[in-house]
Write a structure and sequence with these properties.
Number of helices: 9
Largest sheet: 6 strands, mixed
Oligomer: single chain
Strand order of the largest sheet: 6-7-8-3-9-10
Helix content: 25-40%
Structural class: alpha/beta
Strand content: 25-35%
Number of strands: 10
Length: 237
């Protein structure tokens, strides 16, 4: 579903990503684990076309991001670290705007919006302005928005920052449901080890390079720790 081939990104003399190659499959919940400054957000900006890589290739659902950006990006849904909703519009209007951008017929858009919001327990908030919602419910709106066009890949960049434990749990449960029911590939960037231990696969990124890749147990072993947390701390300190 998602492939990077020797992606390199520099900011002046600093290299944020170093020849990074990944191959992610459908029906996987993949945790991208790395300390602050590891290059996680830069990777997401490259994957979504916001930044151009200095070298390397990105393929989404087999489509080259460089050669066919619109076709490739049509297969991606994304939630960035910073909230990107219009706070003065209602939940419904925010979601309808996204549906229009993807060319969804209005009837289908209304059906998907209602279904997603019910699943995420925010159906009663559809006609409230986003600024009236809690941080957790704003994140749920962003997740609903990211999935409206039924993307093959969902990118979540530190999506639980600032959320309470219940909201974090709800968000993760909704994503796992998409993995099971629709075969989505989720790439979940985090610096919180507790969010990575239940992933199908863990990628450890440090200083723009991939340190380990595998199940949580195999990554723990590869990093030389008794636990994933111990190995992560030892290898990225």
């Amino acid at each position: 579903m998602l492939r990077t081939i020797d992606i390199t990104k520099r900011y002046g003399s600093r290299t944020a990503l170093q020849s990074l190659s990944l191959h992610l499959q459908a029906r996987q919940f993949v945790a991208l684990l790395g300390p602050n400054g590891a290059g996680k957000s830069t990777l997401f900006q490259v994957l979504t076309g916001l930044f151009a890589a200095d070298a390397g290739e990105v393929e989404i659902a087999g489509i080259s991001l460089r050669r066919s950006p619109a076709a490739a990006l049509a297969h991606i849904g994304v939630v960035f670290q910073q909230v990107s909703l219009d706070l003065d519009l209602s939940v419904r209007r925010n979601l309808l705007f996204q549906a229009d951008l993807h060319g969804l017929p209005r009837r289908l858009a209304h059906e998907r919006i209602a279904s997603a919001c019910e699943q995420l327990h925010i159906g009663i908030d559809l006609d409230r302005k986003v600024r009236e919602l809690s941080g957790g419910n704003r994140r749920k709106v962003e997740l609903a928005r990211a999935g409206l066009h039924r993307p093959a890949v969902l990118l979540m960049d530190e999506a639980t920052v600032g959320l309470d434990p219940k909201s974090r749990q709800d968000l993760l449960a909704a994503l796992r449901s998409d993995v099971r029911e629709r075969g989505v590939c989720v790439l979940w960037a985090t610096h919180l080890v507790e969010e990575a231990v239940q992933a199908d696969r863990v990628l450890v990124l440090h200083k723009g390079a991939l340190l380990a890749d595998g199940t949580p147990a195999r990554v723990s072993q590869a990093l030389g720790g008794a636990t994933l947390e111990a190995g992560f701390i030892a290898s990225t300190a």
